[in-house]
């Protein structure tokens, strides 16, 4: 577990906000350099690392690299900044939160809100809305205008750290946890043999509309795709049928977006190898890249594996390192087993 | 550097040990006389030329935080707030629990799994819990116990134009200022009380002021700054950068205007900026001290502080320096 832990303790320090995933590219590339054969980027910036096999089967593994963030939209006359969310930011998680704005220099700010002593009863009962928040950088308008501009992006400040039980907490485990799984799979496949050609895709702009996955899939034209993203990690008080538990393996997607027979094959192989799995029942859709990859080009059969992550879309996303390691292993094993399968038989209707 | 070190220490109201021990060690280094009273206040004596008036300065040591009340079956911790915590500011923050500073995160249900009503209202404390990574109560009990105090993890940070962010700044700026004043070793006789439990009803202030029974008590703390957006004109009170704040009136106390005039006079003569606190929505230890025994004259000075009652207080360093200068000047003026 130390490999995935060290990967995340490092990569989670760098911002990859949707639309700005090129900024820290070397920090990502360095982890796939030794285990893959080539890298191409599509026109939106998705990273496609290819590991060559010796037959014509193409397997795409997708884990989006982008994360949610903020974009500065106004500098008030007193120097306070207004902002809009990039992706699904929850305003309630931002009150009194330290942030960094990436301008000409990195500027630290505090997200502020009205003192609660001045709220009336109604305001005090209402959940914080984005228009009630602003960023305090400690500078005047004239000073801050020299350092940042409207359109600059920002992320919350949260260094990754460990809780008990090999649980890791960080910002943007959605979906760096998925990328960590791809890293683990790549390392495993480097040791095993495989006939298929594997395309590890760290896609961009998932948080703003599942976009990089379409362009990447169109470029790769895979025979099958395995999508890894976060799912609702069970927390106290949640309906157990709507969540997946940390430490108990991936939530395997069951529903219209996921190829039925291929998914069953994955489940069979996982169980034969004594891996724990759970189910993520999603009959009417998927808020992951599966939705766009499934209907790219002439259609792609997909499997989706959800990682149990608690407190999604906050600065304290929490994951069990054991899940990351196991899911990485499961995918490697599945790919290994595909070599001896009649894939056409599984995929034909 | 006193303020940075003090800000990062744990000292939730009722459990001020870490802060008290730090202050005691600093006072020992300075060779300053002090004792601790029956409630845990430190009372220091700066020996010097004595005058007619017995003067006491107070600064509270404690901060707002959380206290663990129980465990849920899945290893999470339920808690209560200690002091006036802005409940909206604690969701997804990091805390440190107990003497071993066990790391935890304050979590709640996933927003997409909430009902519409839950999403639109401020989460209740009973819907929040601290997650330390344990998956069962049996496991969690190995690391924390019911009654453990938790502080917010919020590091001291200098940013912007002379601004400082940290937790507990309202108390630790006051403590730090008092340490500096005692360290100056002026030839003036006065007492300093580092008090406990200010955030939960000014408890320490009772015994400290009773024991010393001064003629004048100057209370130093933090006050809500209102120089941030979305505040209406009639609610405006203190601003960062405009100097120490002199209280005119608090929830239950109308300050003696003669005491205020002397303070304003000293400030003007020493060229120290000051501002007046016009808001009445905060409590002060002064309210308790004023009616101890047969009554004590009080002067409440505050440093303006943004985002008070959250884990990320913000002050301006110039206000910190000006507050120290004003108290020094008032002490000298008494002589």
Distance between the termini of chain A: 40 Å
Q: Overall 3D geometry of chain A?
A: globular
> Strand sequence of the main sheet of chain B, in spatial order?
1-2-12-3-13-16-14-15
What percentage of the residues of chain B does DSSP assign to strands (E)?
A: 25-35%
Describe the biggest sheet of chain B? 8 strands, mixed
> How many helical stretches of chain A?
10
Pattern of helices and strands of chain A: HHEEEEEEEHEHEEEHEHEEHEHEEHH
Q: Termini separation of chain B (Å)?
A: 30 Å
Tally of helical runs of chain B: 9
Please supply descriptive tags for the structure shown above:
heterodimer; A: 349 residues; alpha+beta; 11-stranded mixed sheet; 6-stranded antiparallel sheet; B: 335 residues; 8-stranded mixed sheet; 27% helix; globular
Notes on the protein architecture:
The complex is a heterodimer of chains A (349) and B (335). Chain A is α+β, with helices and mostly antiparallel strands. Chain A contains 10 helices and 17 strands. Chain A has helices spanning 2-11, 25-29, 121-125, 141-145, 173-191, 212-220, 260-272, 290-293, 321-338, 343-347, and strands at 38-41, 47-51, 58-62, 69-75, 81-86, 98-102, 106-112, 134-136, 153-156, 161-162, 167-170, 197-202, 224-232, 251-254, 278-281, 302-310, 317-320. In chain A, strands 1, 2, 3, 10, 11, 12, 13, 14, 15, 16 and 17 form an 11-stranded mixed β-sheet that branches. The two termini of chain A are 40 Å apart. The mean pLDDT of chain A is 96. Chain B has helices spanning 2-8, 17-29, 116-120, 137-140, 169-183, 203-212, 257-269, 285-289, 317-334; strands at residues 33-36, 42-46, 55-60, 65-71, 77-82, 94-97, 102-107, 129-131, 149-152, 157-159, 163-166, 190-195, 216-224, 245-247, 275-277, 297-305, 313-316. In chain B, helix 1 (2-8) packs antiparallel against helix 5 and helix 5 (169-183) crosses helix 9. The two termini of chain B are 30 Å apart.
């Amino acid at each position: 577990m130390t490999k995935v832990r060290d990967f995340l303790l490092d990569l989670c320090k760098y911002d990859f906000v949707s639309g700005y995933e090129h900024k820290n590219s070397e920090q990502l590339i360095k982890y796939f350099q030794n285990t893959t054969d080539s890298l191409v980027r599509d026109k939106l910036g998705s990273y496609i690392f290819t590991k060559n096999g010796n037959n014509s089967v193409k397997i795409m593994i997708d884990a989006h690299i982008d994360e949610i963030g903020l974009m500065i939209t106004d500098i008030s006359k007193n120097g306070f900044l207004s902002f809009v969310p990039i992706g699904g930011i929850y305003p309630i998680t931002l009150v009194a939160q330290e942030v960094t704005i990436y301008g000409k220099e990195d500027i630290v700010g505090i997200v502020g809100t009205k003192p609660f002593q001045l709220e009336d009863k109604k305001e005090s009962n209402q959940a914080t809305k984005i228009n009630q928040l602003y960023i305090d950088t400690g500078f005047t308008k004239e000073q801050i205008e020299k350092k940042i501009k409207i359109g600059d992006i920002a992320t919350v400040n949260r260094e990754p750290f460990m809780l008990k039980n090999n649980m890791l907490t960080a910002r943007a485990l959605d979906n760096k946890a998925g990328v960590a799984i791809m890293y683990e799979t790549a390392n495993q496949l480097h040791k095993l043999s495989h006939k298929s050609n594997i395309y590890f895709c760290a896609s961009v702009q998932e948080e703003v509309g599942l976009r990089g996955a379409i362009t990447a899939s169109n470029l790769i034209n895979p025979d099958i795709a395995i999508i890894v993203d976060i799912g609702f990690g069970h927390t106290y008080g949640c309906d157990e049928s709507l969540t997946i538990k940390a430490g108990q393996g991936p939530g395997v997607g069951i529903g219209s977006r996921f190829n039925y027979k291929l998914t069953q094959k994955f489940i069979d192989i996982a169980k034969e190898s004594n891996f724990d799995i759970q189910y993520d029942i999603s009959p009417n859709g998927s808020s992951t890249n599966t939705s766009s990859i499934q209907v790219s080009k002439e259609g792609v059969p997909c499997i989706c594996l959800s990682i149990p992550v608690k407190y999604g879309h906050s600065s304290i996303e929490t994951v069990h390192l054991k899940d990351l390691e196991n899911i990485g292993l499961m995918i490697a094993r599945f790919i290994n087993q595909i070599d001896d399968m009649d894939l056409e038989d599984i995929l034909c209707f | 550097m006193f303020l940075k070190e003090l800000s990062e220490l744990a000292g939730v109201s009722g459990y001020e040990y870490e802060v008290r021990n730090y202050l005691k060690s600093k006072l020992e280094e300075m060779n300053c006389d002090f004792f601790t009273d029956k409630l845990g206040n430190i009372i220091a004596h700066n020996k010097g030329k004595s005058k007619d008036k017995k003067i006491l300065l107070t600064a509270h040591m404690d901060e707002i935080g959380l206290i663990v009340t129980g465990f849920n079956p899945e290893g999470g911790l339920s808690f209560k707030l200690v002091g006036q915590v802005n409940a909206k500011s604690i969701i997804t923050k990091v805390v440190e629990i107990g003497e071993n500073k066990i790391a935890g995160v304050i979590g709640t249900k996933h927003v997409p799994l909430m009902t519409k009503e839950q999403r639109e209202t401020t989460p209740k404390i009973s819907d929040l819990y601290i997650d330390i990574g344990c998956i069962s109560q049996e496991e969690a009990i190995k690391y924390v116990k019911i009654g453990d105090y938790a502080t917010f993890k919020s590091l001291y940070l200098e940013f912007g134009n002379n601004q400082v962010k940290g937790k507990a700044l309202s108390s630790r700026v006051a403590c730090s200022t008092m340490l500096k004043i005692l360290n100056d070793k002026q030839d003036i006789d006065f007492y300093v009380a580092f008090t406990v439990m200010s955030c939960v009803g000014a408890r320490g202030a009772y015994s400290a002021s009773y024991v010393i029974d001064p003629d004048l008590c100057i209370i130093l703390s933090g006050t809500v700054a209102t120089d941030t957006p979305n505040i209406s004109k009639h609610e405006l009170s203190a601003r960062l950068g405009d100097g120490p704040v002199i209280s005119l009136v608090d929830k239950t106390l109308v300050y003696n205007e003669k005491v205020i005039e002397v303070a304003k006079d000293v400030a003007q003569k020493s060229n120290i900026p000051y501002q007046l606190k016009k808001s009445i929505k905060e409590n002060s230890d002064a309210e308790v001290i004023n009616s101890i025994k047969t009554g004590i004259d009080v002067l409440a000075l505050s440093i303006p502080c943004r985002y008070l009652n959250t884990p990320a207080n913000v002050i301006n360093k110039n206000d910190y320096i000006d507050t120290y200068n004003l108290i020094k000047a008032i002490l000298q003026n008494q002589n």
